[in-house]
# Entry
Amino acid sequence: MQLNTQAKYLTKLNGPWRITFGTNPDTCNYHCIMCEEHSYYSPKNRKRMEGDSKRRLMDFSIIQEVVQECSPFGLKEIIPSTMGEPLLYKDFPGIINLCHEYGVKLNLTTNGSFPGRTAEDWAELIVPVTSDVKISWNGATKELQEKVMVGSNYEQRLEDLMTLLEIRDRHYREGGNYCSVTLQLTFMEINIQEIPEMVKLAISLGADRVKGHHLWVHFNDIAQLSLRRNSDSIRRWNQTVDECRKIAKETSLPNGKHIKLDNFYRLDPYNKNELRPDGICPFLGREAWVNHEGRFDPCCAPDDLRKGLGTFGNVIDSGLMSIWESEQYNQLINHYLENDLCKMCNMRRPREG
# Structure
C-alpha cells in the first residue's frame, strides 16, 4: 500500500525539463576515490589505464538532435557528462552555442580544475548561459581534499573558485544572467568531520548552496566509508545534519541571504537499507539521461544497476519523445518502487508541499 501511495505523487511532464548527456564519461583528470569510473579502486579505470577498453565519446550530433526535438516540449536545462570532466569534452563550446540558440540553460558539474584555459576564460564562457555550476568539493582542508579528489591542488582550486564567483557577481551586477554556484560533495566517513567546515567555507565565499549525496558503494574497498553502514554511523550523520543546519540558519552569506543545504536529511538509524522510506523519485517523468551511444536512461543510478530498470530504446533510432511516451517507460513511473534499486536509492527525497 505504501508503494502505491508514494508512486502516485509522480507527475509526468509533457517532456523532460532537463536532460543529462553522457558526453565523455571516460575522460577525467582526477581519480576521486568514490568515483564509479575513475577511482583507482574502479575495475573500469584499471581496464582503461591498461588500454583494454575503448574510451566512450558522444557524437555531438546526438545532443543537437535531442535538444532540437525536446525544446518545444518544455526543455529548460541540459547537463554534460557528470562521470567524466565535461570541460574536457572536445565539443563543449558547441554545447554553449546550443544553449544560446534554443534558449536552454546549462547545468554544469565540474571538478573545478578548469582544464586548457584559465578559470577566468572558462567563467566568461559559462556564466552567461548557466543556471548552476556545481563544483566538486570534498574536504575543508588541503589534506583531505587532495586525499579524496586525487590529482587536485587545493590552493589552485580555491583561487579558481573565487575567480568564478567574482565573475559571476560582476556579470549579474551588469544585468546579465545569475549563475548560482554550488559546492557538491559525497557524504562519507572520511569527510564527515569536515562537512560543517565545508558549509562555513561555502558561506564565506558566497556560494549559493552545498549539495551532497550519500556514497554509492561501487567497490568493496570503500564500503567502510558509507555513513549508512550501521546505526552508529547514521546517528553521527544525523548529528552532522543538525550542526550544518544550525550553521546555515545562523550565518548569513555576504549578500545577506542564507545558504541552501540540499539533501541534508536525517536518516532512520534502524533502517539503513532504505534511505528515505517516505521519499519519492525526483527524476522519473521529469528528467532524462542519454548515454554516449544515444541509449535512453531513466535516472542517474550507477550504469550497471540502472540497466536493471529496463531497456527503453535509443534516441538515434526513435527519438527521445517517443520513448518518453512509451508504455514501458510509463510502467516504470507507475511501479518504480517495486524495484529494489529504487527502494534503496540515494536520490529519493521528501515530497514537496
